[in-house]
C-alpha cells in the first residue's frame, strides 16, 4: 500500500447518514437502499454522535430489542474515532486493526464527508502487502489481534456479535441445557454424546480421578512451601503428576493415546487442586465421590460435604462457559508447546502459566476486590471515576475480542441473580455505574462487562474461596486446552514465527580489546 494513498481515494461518498431518533427498522431500510454496511448518526443539530452498522442492528435484534420501538441512539457506537479525508490509508488500517472498528466516519470540518469501510482498506492492503518468498517478514499487529494463526474445529468467538460456540453449538445454550460431562465429551470427542456414550465417558472420567503413586505426599509438600499460592501450586502439581504418569512426547503418540492422556489430566486437575487447598488449610483431603459429576464433586472435595443442587448447577454453568474461548492466550500457549512435539503435561503447565496473568485469567478475585474497595453503592461512581482518572483499568470490564456484551457475563449475571443475595444487588449497581463511567471517560472504546465480573460473584455465592477463582477457571479451561492439544498433535506443524529486529544495526564490532582480560584469565587458570 503506498504511503501517499489517502482515505479520500477509498471512502464511500457522500456519507450515508441517519438521525439518532429514528427506529432500527427505519435505519435498516436506509442501509438497504444505499447498499452500505453502516451509516453515520447525526443528532438534531446535524452533529456526528455515532455510527450504526448492520452488526449493531443484528446484535440488538438478537438481544430482543423491538426494531420498531428501539431508536438508533440506543444501539449505536457513540463518539466514534474520526478520520479526515487527507489521513493516510495506513493510519486508517492501524485504527481498524487496533480498535476493531469496521467503519469510520471521514470528516471535513464538522461535516461527515464520507465513510471508510474496513473492506475498502483491506482490498488495497491485500494487493500490495503480498511479499515475494524470502523477503523480510511482515510485522503482525502487536498482540496478534485479527491474525489467524491456525485452523481449528474446536470452537470460535464472534466478538462483534457477542457470540461464541463449541464445535458449532452456542456455548451459552450448552451451559443452559447440558451437563459438564456432555460438553466435555463434545469438545474432546467432537460431538455431543448419546446416553450410552455419556455413561461410558462419565465412567472413564470418574476412573481417571485416581492419583498416580507418590503424588499424594508431594502435594502435601507443595502445600507446605512458603508463599503458597494455589495456581502456582497447581501448575507445579500438574507438571509432576504428568511426569509421574510417564507423559510421552505427543510426537510419539497416536491420536487416541493423546486423547486418553488428555482425559486423565483433565480429570485429575480438580483433584490435585482440592488436595493442595485442603492441605494448605490444615484440613484432611477429601476423595472425590464417584457418584457425583464434575461440578458437584468439585464442591464436595472443596468443602467436605455434598453441595446443594442449586450450588452445583450454578458452578457447573460457570465451568461450562469457561471451558473454551477461541484462540485465547493460554490455548495458543498450549498449542505452541504441543507443536514442538512436547508432552501434554508441559503444554498444560505452560497454559496455566499463561492463564495466571491478570489480563487473562487472573481478574475475578480482583473484580471482587474492587467491589470491596468500593464498599457501598453511594461510593461507586466516585471510586470508578478516580480509578480511570488514575489510568487504572476496571477489573471485569473490556475484552480483546468482545466489543459488545460478553455473552458469558449475560448468563452469569442471570445465574448470580438466581442465587440471590446482597452482593448480587451491589454488583449489579456497580456494573451499571461502571458502564456509564466507561462510556463517558473512554468513549468509542466499546468496553463492556466481561466474564470475570459476575464469575467472582457466582463463585463467592457457592462457597469457592477467592484465591481459588482463577484455579477453578484453570480446571474448566483444561478441557479446552486438551481439545486444542489433541487437535494440534493430530495435524502438527512446528509453530515458529519471526520477529522484526529493531536493535542496533548488525553485525556490530566488539570494542577494541574487549574480553582480552577474560581470555588472559582463562589461559592463566
Ligand atoms: N477499564 C478502563 N479502561 C479500559 C479497560 C478497563 N477495564 N479495558 C480497556 N480500557 C481502555 C484502555 O485504557 C484503552 O484506552 P486508551 O485508548 O485511552 O489507551 C482502550 O480501552 C483500549 O484498550 P486495549 O489495551 O487496547 O484493550 P485490549 O484489547 O488490549 O484489552 C483487556 C483487553 C486486557 C481484557 C482489558 O480490557 C483489561 O485490562 N481489562 C481489565 C482486566 C480484565 O477484566 N481481565 C479479564 C479479561 S476476560 C478473560 O481473559 C477471560
Describe the model:
The chain has 525 residues and is α+β, with helices and mostly antiparallel strands. It has two domains: 7-129, CBS-domain (Roll), CATH 3.10.580; 154-496, Citrate Synthase, domain 1, CATH 1.10.580. 51% of the residues lie in helices and 8% in strands. The protein is built from 22 helices and ten strands. The protein has helices at 24-34, 54-62, 72-75, 89-99, 118-129, 171-177, 180-189, 195-207, 215-223, 230-244, 255-280, 294-303, 309-321, 329-339, 344-355, 364-374, 380-389, 407-419, 422-441, 451-461, 469-490, 516-524, and strands at residues 17-19, 38-42, 48-53, 77-78, 83-84, 103-108, 111-117, 155-158, 163-166, 169-170. The chain has a four-stranded mixed β-sheet with strand order 1-2-3-4. Helix 4 (89-99) packs across helix 5 and helix 9 packs across helix 11. The longest helix has 26 residues, at 255-280. The termini are far apart. Mean pLDDT is 91; it is low at 126-130. Bound molecules: acetyl coenzyme *A. Acetyl coenzyme *A binds next to helix 20.
Features:
525 residues; CBS-domain; Citrate Synthase, domain 1; 22 helices; 10 strands; 51% helix; globular; binds acetyl coenzyme *A
Total beta strand runs: 10
Largest sheet: 4 strands, mixed
CATH level 1 name of the largest domain:
Mainly Alpha
Classify the fold: give the CATH topology of the largest domain.
Citrate Synthase, domain 1
* Rg: 26 Å
Helix content bin: 40-55%
**Biggest β-sheet: strands ordered side by side in the sheet:** 1-2-3-4
Extract low-pLDDT stretches.
126-130
Backbone structural class = alpha+beta
- Separate helix tally: 22
CATH architecture of the largest domain: Orthogonal Bundle
CATH superfamily of the largest domain: Citrate Synthase, domain 1
Mean pLDDT across residues: 91
Strand content: 5-15%
Total domain count: 2
* Ends distance: 60 Å
| Shape category | globular
**Bound ligands, each once:** acetyl coenzyme *A
